[in-house]
Amino acid sequence: MATSSIQDLLRSRGLPAGIFPDNVKSYKLNLDGRLEVELEKSCMAEFDGRVHFDRVVRANLSYGGLVGLEGLSQEELFLWLPVKCIIANDPSPGVMLFDIGVAHKQLSISLFEVPPPCMTQGNV
């Protein structure tokens, strides 16, 4: 079955549809599970804090997770830290785990139901 959108692909892998912003131009999923998502432009988005998406975001896609992320960072205490992985429903149902290296941040999965709007840095 062909997957028509990044949102459909994410849902089919046990992830919420709104992990990536609303400006996804295309995506490519290799047979080994390596996902490459191309955005129309790099941008900021808001979940429970500000996140920055590079124009191209890469990760290993498995059921319920994006591991080995490249191109995504989250602002914590005025510092931009790379997001290393995103895991759904771990450690408990309804929770998204963001691994930012120095800490793990747990966010409600409801924040990721709809793709967030892509904003320029000055508009966040």
Structure report:
With 124 residues, the protein is mainly β. The chain has one domain: at5g01610, DUF538 DOMAIN (Roll), CATH 2.30.240.10. It is 6% helix and 48% strand. The chain is built from one helix and nine strands. Strands 1, 2, 3, 4, 5, 6, 7, 8 and 9 form a nine-stranded antiparallel sheet that branches. A hairpin with a 2-residue loop joins strand 5 (65-76) and strand 6.
Short descriptors:
single chain; 124 residues; mainly beta; at5g01610, DUF538 DOMAIN; nine-stranded antiparallel sheet; 6% helix; At5g01610-like; DUF538
Q: Could you outline the blueprint of secondary structure elements for this entry?
A:
Elements: H1 6-12, E1 24-29, E2 34-39, E3 43-46, E4 50-62, E5 65-76, E6 79-82, E7 85-88, E8 95-99, E9 104-108
Antiparallel strand pairs: 1-2, 2-4, 3-4, 4-5, 5-6, 5-7, 7-8, 8-9
InterPro entries: At5g01610-like, DUF538
Pfam families: DUF538 (PF04398)
Biggest sheet descriptor: 9 strands, antiparallel
How helix-rich are the residues, as a percent range? under 10%
Number of strands: 9
| Number of individual domains | 1
Mean pLDDT: 91
Overall SS class: mainly beta
Fraction of residues in β-strands: over 45%
Distance between the termini: 38 Å
Total DSSP helices: 1
CATH topology: at5g01610, DUF538 DOMAIN
